[in-house]
Amino acid sequence: MNDRMLTMADALREAMGIAMEERQEVFILGEDIGIYGGAFGVTGDLYHRFGADRVLDTPISELGFVGTAVGAALAGMRPIVEIQFSDFTAQAMDQIANQAAKIHFMVGGGLHVPLVLRAASGSGTGAAAQHSQSLETWFANIPGLKVVMPSNPTDAKGLLLSAIDDPNPVIFLEHKLLYKIPGREAVPEGAERIPLGVSKVVRPGKDITIVATGIMVNRCFEAAEKLMSEGISVELIDPRTISPLDINPILQSVDRTGRLMVVQEAPEHAGFLNEVIAQVTTSGSFGSLIAPIVRLAGMNIPIPYAPQLERAAVPQIENIEAAARAAVREWR
Amino acid sequence: MSFLYPVVMPKMSMTMETGELLVFHCKVGDVVKAGDVLFEVMTDKIDMEVESPADAVVKELLQAPGAVVPIGQPVMTLITETQVMAFDFDGEAAADSIESIESSESLVVEAEIPVASESTVAQDPSTQIKAVPKVRSIAAQKGIDLSSITPTGPEETIMMADLGASAYAHTDRQIANRNLIASGLAKTREIPQASFERYVNRTIGESAQWHATLLSSWANTLRSRPDLLSGSDIGVAMIIRSKHGSALPVFKNPDLMPIEELKSLVLQTTELAMTGKVPVHMLNGATTTIFDLTSFSMSSPTPLLFPTHITSLTVGSSEVSSSLKLALTIDLRTCDFYDGAQLLEQLVSKM
Amino acid sequence: MGTETLIAGHPFSSSTHASQALLVMNRIRKFEEAVEDLFGRGMMHGTMHLSIGQEACATGVCLNLEITDQITSTHRGHGHCIAKGADLTRMIAELLGKEIGYCGGRGGSMHIADVATGNLGANGIVAGGIPIAVGAALAAKMMKKTNVVVSFFGDGALNEGAFHEAANLAAIWSLPVIFVCENNHYGMSSSTEKAFALEKLSDRALGYGFPGVTVDGNDLAAVYEVTQSAVERARSGQGPTLIELETYRYKGHSRSDKNLYRTKEEIDDAKTRDPIQRFRSKAIEMKLLTEEEAESIEKTATDDVIAAVNEAVKAKAADPAGLMDAVFKKVSL
Questions:
Q1: What is the mean pLDDT of each run of 10 residues along chain C (333 residues)?
Q2: Is the peptide bond before B249 cis (omega within 30 degrees of 0)?
Q3: What interface predicted TM-score (ipTM) does this complex get?
């Protein structure tokens, strides 16, 4: 087995280690990230490699330590904050939304906030409503924040390195279910960055364009394999950066295929992928559509606890297959 | 040193624009101390006492109780020895400072307008046609009438498959039109003909006016040679864009019409052509044809002669701006070389 | 008028220091009065939070700071800004929405920052600047710098969660931060008697394990001295201090205030304890300044503010054209 088939946790740890070696200003803070190695094992041995001076365990005070990170960033450091569950960003919202996002703009450019805020997101672990949300939409609608959702270990590593380089605040949302599994390809060694704000065509196709985020990218990939055997060719696009959104590959794809489906885990109502739909339909690509646009998203409910309920609350591979098949077969 | 200090109606809340003066607590000549209440003001939000900023003497009361005073306007004046931090700007400086406040145009992010569809949409929703965007887009381009298509998509929506081959072919009408013109001109090769070119210094003004001038001048030129004509009526056909390609409406005796009337006729005919409705009586009786290529910045060395027309004229752009290139083809069975040259000469002098 | 930082030192230590202190306090006072006038004329958008009566707090603290020391401030931050050496013209220009304003017209009164003088920004969120100050102190420690950070806030902020979390972090990590609470006894309308079950607000520090001390915020020398100890503590790595400065606010919370919750007697009584008058009298009594010198300083302060206003009013208004580019700092490759 190829030992570069890293899990997402491994890839993230590798990125942080590289960044911390490259620049002394990079440090990490969060709950249980030191000796414990992080609730999901992401920080791992970074505490042993870099010491308590650069890997800081904090008390349970998200508002306090996110704000501290903002202040440290203003004063010349490059903090990486780990929020144990993305749901807890709510505790720190003033420092994220009113401070970090806005300081550079409000003060007229003289200050900036090079902060990365990583958080474990998403459902499927039975952690129930307050520990399972997908919150990219909250942050995407706040000017001044960049929002990233990696779907695989290779992207996670390259994107995190770019996020740390970025002089602006970046919200980096990782899916819990992806931490412990490898991706479809080996993760490159070295320190190569993947730029923020660049969408990726994960799989080319001609019958329908599917845009998906986070873990849904992987489910759509599985669905696409199945559909291929039925003669349906799916073009799968992963925006990777939610905000700023690279829409051009998506528009070009829709011009070719004429069909669009968007898939996200977050609840459907007012969710982020509506932005993709809006940008497509308000552009010239509107005239390329030969079928109605399809939206697959989480139910508009808090994530439930029991496994069959939790599963039913968000799109699964079979839902994706069925929807894509219908769009292609019924609209010729 | 004494200062004259105007006590203005203060702005006391973010939204306040005027205040009502309720009552003065002083009169002219009173000696007041810093902090003494001078007058009371009422706004929709609050009642406020306005205090003296310094030790002073009341000089003048400028408003009366009950007056509604805009913010920033003086209500009364004081004489004081203290240099109170007060500013008196002329209208311009103050206006500039406020300008950025007043112009509260929000920045609207412009969305791109989607490709407009021209397909027929009935007012009554029950007969409204549903079609996917690309179908509408193609229908508009090709002039396909969507009401003639049977939808087989979900919810009676016309989808691409319903357009079939016609989506990619030209309309029958367009094809018929072209065939007509082409078959006519195929015979042109059999006519003995000669062509002449001439430059003229002339700029083109407004389109309809220009066409009217052209029509009129050319008809007038021809009329000076009755020996070349077969009757006293001169019909000038002019090629124009139409819904189905090109059309050749014929203007009868355009030089005998007042120029304004001719101009209206040109405009009217152009409009009719774009809807495919050139009147039948304008489709025959031509003695000559004009091709105006100036709008395409082109010129033609050899105007095409329609059979039964004795002459054919093109007007084109030349390499030299502010001049045009005229090219004339004549049917040698009715005109000879000298006639052709003379006709051009005459046309030039009329232009 | 350009930036001018203070020469650190006790205000009563020399004539130079006394002059400087009187000048700064007068500048703050005149500036706030000018803002009040301009706002009253409808020339300023939004609302203004004035600190008239609290000049000794800002001045006494900042007399202890070097240019490399940093501060965070509040919605009532004009005084802190000026005491740390801000350019008066650029401040007024910001309030008037001009391009040369500190924030290019994009921030307004509550968001003025002046990086050159170590001012990390005023803040429109109560207690918003407290964790930020702690973070700047953490950075100083990690980068092995010797600067300290002062976080200015009001009595209201002591009840915000952000204060508690940040104070705890400052304590457990022994950070070089000084928490300065200007207790003017009122939030917008609620008095500290009703919002706290404490006699002395500085006792809050005990809950986090570091010292807290209360002094008369209208006594410039007292403010200077208590800050001096706190700065020494911080710089020598002994961690944070909470300083409570008891003061008073003459005007309403902001310009929309009816002063209903205080009596006229209460306000008049406070005016007899005007910090500028107190310092002025004492300095003259100690023969550090003459009456003429004091008057001349007041005139200079007035002239400085008038000049700043006149310059700012003439400046070009901020242009919407640059807005989209102002959100993110460009990534340099």
A1: 70 95 97 93 87 95 96 95 96 95 93 94 95 98 97 95 97 98 77 87 96 96 98 97 87 53 63 86 96 97 96 94 92 68
A2: no
A3: 0.91
